[in-house]
Design goal:
The protein is α/β, with parallel strands linked by helices and 353 residues long. It has a domain of 243 residues: Rossmann fold (3-Layer(aba) Sandwich). The chain has 13 helices and 13 strands. Strand 5, helix 8 and strand 6 form a beta-alpha-beta unit. The longest helix has 22 residues. The two termini are 28 Å apart.
């Protein structure tokens, strides 16, 4: 990658995963176009990336403010005007394959996450995750970009009790969010078959890492718990604590996106893959792990300027509607097809926070 410069379009670039993607790409001498509307992303994430990569690398980043629910904004990310399709894709099939930004690869991360949020507001989830997704597929096709890598989710496995989760064995989805992500996979497959688009879906399993928002009712469990412990507030565990997850550090996800974007293995195209660590951690085990981190901070050298953290406990609450009981990924397919190798496990990842 350092020898060959490409242009990558990252949607949701100001979000947690999107900001890590643009940071890694800029560090690897790539050009990046970022699209975001700041609905769930933050300007501060872009500022942190700019500080991390330096001004010289930052000049290779072009930001477009836009909402994927608005089809014109999707075309704007490619510096294109929306075509008059008249119900047909013929204009797309016959147009020259060139854009102002000459985007080579799309990494589609923009989405409205959270199972509970989707149950509370299924319409918004559908508008962003399904309509917005199809808008991006259309714009990508019209721009002449062949490779489209997108974020799917382990939630598509639904009520399947098979462990570890294998890509071709899914159950009934348990939430509107899960349905929206499964719809993404179906649409991506159709665009591959009908229009020759090269798609790869990445089923993320409980991604965590720096810049993940700990606030709000839909915050992910690890940043939310760490924030609670630091404040001396009780940690909320939904259910009996025996619910398990395959937690995946964000650097592993960045690696998967880049490998999927660059793979030359034609057999890897137009499929979805598990992106995780292949390790199972219960919520009770996670709490002990984070609590041990707290103790490490309490006993840190005075020179680190860490103050002793206040005590906190746990509060067990009823299980949340739509949550999967156990989650563990089989990652052999992604390893075999495009060389994915998770390098940071949960213990090291939590220590990095």
């Amino acid at each position: 990658m350092l020898r060959q410069q490409r242009t990558w379009l990252v949607t949701g670039c100001a979000g947690f995963i999107g900001s890590h993607l643009i940071e890694a790409l800029l560090q690897l001498n790539q050009k990046v176009v970022g699209l975001d509307n700041f609905a769930t992303g933050y300007r501060k994430n872009l500022k942190l990336v700019r500080k991390s990569v330096g001004e010289k690398a930052w000049k290779r980043f072009h930001f477009v403010r836009g909402d994927i629910r608005k089809v014109n904004d999707c075309y704007k990310a490619f510096s294109l005007k929306m075509p008059k399709l008249n119900g047909s894709l013929e204009v797309i099939a016959n147009r020259p394959r060139h854009t102002a930004h000459s985007v080579d690869i799309v990494l589609h991360q923009a989405a409205l996450g959270s199972v509970p949020r989707s149950i509370k507001d299924p319409l918004s989830t559908h508008e962003v995750n399904v309509t917005g997704f199809v808008n991006m597929l259309m714009a990508t096709r019209y721009a002449g970009v062949r490779r489209f890598v997108y974020a799917s989710s382990s939630s598509v496995y639904g009520d399947s009790t098979v462990l570890p989760k294998q890509e071709d064995k899914i159950g009934r989805q348990l939430s509107p969010y899960a349905v929206s992500k499964y719809a993404n996979e179906l649409y991506a497959g159709v665009f591959g078959r009908c229009y020759g688009l090269q798609t790869i879906g990445l089923r993320y399993f409980n991604v965590f890492g720096p810049r993940q928002d700990p606030n709000g009712p839909y915050a992910a469990v690890i940043p939310r718990w760490i924030a609670a412990i630091r404040k001396g507030e009780p940690v909320h565990i939904y259910g009996d604590g025996k619910t398990s997850r395959d937690f995946c550090y964000v650097e592993n996800v960045v690696q998967a996106n880049i490998l999927a974007g660059l793979t030359e293995n034609k057999k890897a195209l137009n499929h979805a893959y598990n992106i995780a660590c292949g390790a199972r951690t219960t919520l009770n085990q996670l709490y002990l792990l984070i609590s041990n981190l707290k103790k490490q901070l309490q006993h840190a050298d005075v020179s680190t300027k860490h103050q002793a953290l206040p005590p906190s406990g746990t509060l067990y609450l009823p299980e949340r509607e739509g949550d999967i009981r156990n989650s563990l990924a089989d990652i052999l397919k992604s390893k075999h097809m495009f060389g994915y190798r998770p390098v940071i496990q949960i213990k090291e990842g939590v220590t990095n926070l």
